[in-house]
Write a structure and sequence with these properties.
single chain, alpha/beta, six-stranded parallel sheet, 26 helices, about 50% helix
Length: about 600
């Protein structure tokens, strides 16, 4: 195996702690597997004394196969596993747990639904609400936060604490644990039972951890206990690729490693074997603007690479059309679709691109679950207004929108399945001000019936006051108003290409059907363009990469206000940039959903490195 100097130093390290800074494409998997082999063959360490930890099962399997290939021996009993797999092995031994004690995701949701039935909470999407609740519960466990010091962003603090305690009580009563409990239980076990800790310390004398930048506080505290007192902890990662703060990972854990392990050695894998020279330089410029990081000098192994392409388009349609034209031309010249990836900050951005890829019959695979905006409750409200404008008299349609915005019309006033305005107004003879509101609704629906889909959405928002309803709803629910507004903007933009409601609704029906069919038929597609969020692209590489909608408010995301959040957004963009091997294209637009927008600060930063 051909090794550079830094790889050689890392591979031949034996005792004590070592921090290996492994940038994109620096051969970290080779370093971990080769070092494991060397411990066995060069230093006579028993394979059973070695533990190699990864973050995903797929990464663990790949690492194991690479190691067996290197050794030529599948009997070398090194322990490979994820944090959860290793911790569950420890818990099985201590508590006699089996797989039946692990709660399924379906059961977690079912228990949470039962708990929520006892509270008068208002939410539109139950699954999304429960997912957010479970995410916050996981954050508490992963970071070992005192429940009394945690402030929920999903519901009120008192209610959240009651829900948390009831959820925990139900799990304990049924002797069930979730994945986050595996961490918490192992920490408590080691903390309280030093005899059990000692037996595992004796078993795992050498610990190697991949993707260390993704570690959370509880995982790290357990690893420190497990490695003590020899402290043979060999960690490999890149603080510049720490992008999971929302899951509890903290780059500062890696940044403080040498303080926690005085005398730890540090090695920088300083050659990028994946990206061409211009991509390495450009991404290096960008990440140099982060202050909380290890300073690194990275060079590219390959000189062959096109300069990074920066283009600003008028709108997303122009951006998508140019991108599609570029892919088609390169495929026409002998490239394969699988060599291309289009990356974006949030999965909702993919909607218009998916529509155009389908219309040009370009095969694609989606790495994330892309939400169908047409199935969102806001879209349903808009469609209901349009249905009523086109002549629907169904009671359920009136019930859905008659108080969006607030008209203070009682549900009891709709007595029949078929609603007639004259009879409905008559219900309020003694309350003429309510009758006036019904009459205004009738006039609004007549106006909408004569409009194009785009104009009708605009009128529902501003003429009828749906935007104000969303503001009040967001305030009442303590959720981000901009996210609801963005969804509505996206729905309105999609209507712009259609002249009639029938055309637009037919398109929506076709799009929904095609996306579902596409997901089934292209699961095994081998030659297809990859569509992915920056988060989901981590660890992957492609010959050609397009980063789209690189605009303020999207990249960095508008929720990022504090400096630590901006630095995380910059790391996320850095991950996106370094997926490209040969050609990197960075695209921005001048307007999103008919609103003018500015090019992301990251574009200028990627052109200019911070000077010392």
């Amino acid at each position: 195996m051909n090794l550079n100097k830094s790889q050689h130093c890392a591979i031949h390290h034996k005792d004590g702690a070592m921090l290996v800074l492994a940038g994109p494409g620096s051969g970290k998997t080779a370093v971990i597997t080769q070092r494991t082999k060397n411990l066995i063959e060069e230093y006579n360490i028993l394979p059973s004394d070695i533990l190699v930890i990864t973050f995903t099962k797929a990464a663990s399997n790949e690492m194991k196969e690479r190691f067996y290939l290197l050794m030529g021996d599948r009997n070398a009993r090194v322990s490979f596993g994820t944090f959860h797999a290793v911790f569950f092995t420890i818990l099985k031994s201590a508590y006699n747990f089996s797989s039946e004690n692990i709660i399924s995701e379906d059961m977690r949701y079912r228990i949470m639904r039962e708990i929520l039935s006892g509270y008068m909470l208002d939410y539109k999407d139950e699954n999304e609400f429960i997912g957010n609740l479970l995410g916050e519960i996981g954050m508490i466990k992963n970071s070992r936060i005192d429940i009394n010091n945690f402030y929920s962003g999903v519901c009120g603090e008192d209610i959240f604490r009651k829900i948390y305690k009831e959820y925990e009580a139900r799990l304990r009563k049924s002797r069930l644990i979730d994945f986050d409990d595996m961490l918490l239980y192992t920490y408590e076990l080691f903390d309280q039972r030093k005899d059990i800790l000692a037996s595992w310390q004796k078993k795992f004398k050498y610990i190697l951890i991949d993707e260390f930048q993704d570690i959370n506080r509880t995982q790290y505290e357990i690893m420190k206990m497990l490695a003590y007192p020899q402290n043979n902890m060999f960690i490999v990662g890149d603080d510049d690729q720490s992008i999971y703060r929302f899951r509890g990972s903290r780059p500062e854990i890696m940044l403080n490693f040498e303080k926690d392990f005085p005398g730890a050695k540090r090695i920088l894998l300083d050659v990028n074997y994946r990206c061409g020279k211009y991509i390495v330089e450009t991404s290096k410029n960008l990440i140099s603007h982060n202050k909380e990081r290890f300073d690194k000098t990275i060079t590219a192994a390959s000189e062959s690479c096109e300069p990074v392409s920066y283009i600003t388009f008028e709108n997303r349609r122009d951006e998508n059309m140019y991108l599609i034209k570029d892919i088609k031309e390169l495929v026409g010249n002998g490239r394969c679709f699988k060599e291309f990836a289009v990356l974006f900050r949030t999965n909702i951005q993919a909607r218009s691109l998916i529509e155009q890829l389908m219309s040009y019959n370009i095969p694609f695979k989606i790495r994330d679950a892309v939400p169908n905006i047409y199935e969102h409750w806001i879209a349903n409200d808009i469609f209901t207004y349009q249905r009523l404008a086109m002549g629907s008299h169904e009671r359920k349609d009136f019930l859905q929108i008659m108080n969006r915005p607030k008209r203070y019309i009682s549900r009891d006033s709709l007595r029949h399945e078929c609603v007639e305005f004259a009879a409905w107004k008559k219900e309020f003879e003694t309350q003429p001000w309510i009758a006036e509101r019904i009459e205004k609704l009738e006039c609004d629906l007549k106006l909408i019936s004569q409009m194009s889909p785009y104009a009708s959405v605009n009128y529902i928002r501003r003429g009828i006051g749906y935007d104000e309803f969303l503001k009040e709803y967001a305030k009442y629910k303590s959720i981000n108003e901009e996210e609801l507004s963005d969804m509505l903007d996206e729905i309105q933009e999609s209507a712009a290409a259609y002249k009639t409601f029938a055309e637009w609704h037919e398109h929506i029906k076709k799009y929904t059907s095609e996306v579902k069919n596409h997901a089934k038929s292209h699961e095994e597609e081998t030659d297809a363009v990859t569509l992915s969020t920056f988060h989901s692209s981590k660890g992957l590489e492609y010959r050609n990469v397009y980063l789209i909608d690189v605009n303020e408010g999207i990249v960095p995301y508008k929720k990022a206000i504090l400096e630590k959040d901006i630095e995380e957004e910059r790391r996320l963009f850095y991950v996106g940039m370094t997926r490209a091997k040969e050609k990197l294209s960075i695209y921005s637009v001048r307007s999103v959903n008919d609103k003018s927008t500015s090019v992301s600060r990251f574009v200028e930063e990627s052109k200019n490195m911070v000077k010392d």
